[in-house]
Amino acid sequence: MEPNYSKYSLEELYDVEANIDSSKYPERLKRIKDEIQLRKPVLLANKQKAPLVDVKDAGVHLTIFNYDENGFELKLSVTYNFLITYQKTWYEIRLTSEQFSDLVYCLKNGIKSWHGSGDLWGASKIFVNEQSSPFQKRDIRLYRRWFILGFCIVPSTLSSVILQALYKVEEQQEALQGS
Question: Residue 170: which of 123, 107, 114 has the closest Cα?
Answer without folding.
Answer: 107
